[in-house]
């Protein structure tokens, strides 16, 4: 599905991550863990086509997209929800979702029908459908950002630190929703918080000093205190 081989990413000629290889298979939630500044956002931005890789290849469903423009990657099914929960603050929750649906849906009734599964997945958004997005809580804004991305019908959804700034109970709920999303859409999530991978990940990779240093099932990585201390500084 998503196949990343020997990817080197960075700024100018300065490599931040070197020789990164991994895959995301159908139905998987792959979590990439790493300390502040290790290059997690840089990796996702590169996969999304928002900045060029320095070396290596990226393929989606067998098709090489290493040099494909960002908007075309979205149309092919690779969607990024960046950190910061961007939506349109002066538009209501449902208007934000309608806009997300407009990539595939035609006309008002088709658009309204298209957003129903997202409102089912996030009942809080259904309750607040007429509220302005700018007045939502941080957790609700995150759900809205994920909901909008889902409306693009991605085959791989990439989430950049979705737990950032959220209360622990909301992070747990978010982890559960991500596990639900993975029944239809593969997920690649970068995190520092262990609660999201603990609830949703099928595989965990650890980034340290520019490389993937560990890879395993969540129970192998997340309960290994040496790994957690050494690589995440928590
Ligand atoms: N536009 C840029 N130009 C040059 N260097 C950058 C740029 N953006 C990020 N960096 C540097 O690249 C490194 C990795 O940054 P990145 O934001 O990818 O890390 P991160 O793992 O996502 O961090 P955090 O967990 O703190 O969000 C950092 O040293 C950062 O200062």
UniProtKB/TrEMBL annotation:
Protein's organism: Nocardioides daedukensis
Gene Ontology terms, MF aspect: ATP binding; ATP hydrolysis activity; branched-chain amino acid transmembrane transporter activity
Highest taxon above the source species: Bacteria
UniProt keyword annotation of Chloroplast present: no
Keywords attached to this entry: Amino-acid transport, ATP-binding, Nucleotide-binding, Transport
SUPFAM superfamilies found in the cross-reference section: P-loop containing nucleoside triphosphate hydrolases
Domain ABC transporter stretches: 2-234
InterPro entries xrefs: AAA+_ATPase (IPR003593), ABC_transporter-like_ATP-bd (IPR003439), ABC_transporter-like_CS (IPR017871), BCAA_Transport_ATP-bd_LivF (IPR052156), P-loop_NTPase (IPR027417)
SMART domains linked: AAA
Protein name: Branched-chain amino acid transport system ATP-binding protein
Listed GO biological process terms: L-amino acid transport
Record-stated family: Belongs to the ABC transporter superfamily.
PROSITE patterns found in the cross-reference section: ABC_TRANSPORTER_1 (PS00211), ABC_TRANSPORTER_2 (PS50893)
Pfam families xrefs: ABC_tran (PF00005)
């Amino acid at each position: 599905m998503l196949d990343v081989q020997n990817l080197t990413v960075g700024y100018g000629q300065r490599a931040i991550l070197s020789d990164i290889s991994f895959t995301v298979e159908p139905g998987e939630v792959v979590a990439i863990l790493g300390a502040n500044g290790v290059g997690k956002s840089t990796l996702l931005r590169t996969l999304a086509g928002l900045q060029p890789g320095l070396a290596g290849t990226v393929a989606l469903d067998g098709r090489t997209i290493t040099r494909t423009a960002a908007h075309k990657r979205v149309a092919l099914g690779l969607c990024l929800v960046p950190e910061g929960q961007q939506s349109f603050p002066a538009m209501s929750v449902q208007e934000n979702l309608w806009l997300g649906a407009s990539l595939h849906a035609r006309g008002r009734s088709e658009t309204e029908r298209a957003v129903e599964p997202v409102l089912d997945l996030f009942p809080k958004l259904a309750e607040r459908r007429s509220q302005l997005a700018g007045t939502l809580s941080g957790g609700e804004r995150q759900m809205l950002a994920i909901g909008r991305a889902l409306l693009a019908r991605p085959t791989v959804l990439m989430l950049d630190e979705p737990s950032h700034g959220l209360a622990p109970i909301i992070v747990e709920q978010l982890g559960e929703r991500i596990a639900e999303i993975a029944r239809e859409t593969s997920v690649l999530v970068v995190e520092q918080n262990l609660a999201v991978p603990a609830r949703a990940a099928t595989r965990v990779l650890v980034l340290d000093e520019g490389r993937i240093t560990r890879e395993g099932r969540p129970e192998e990585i997340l309960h290994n205190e040496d790994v957690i201390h050494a690589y995440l500084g928590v």
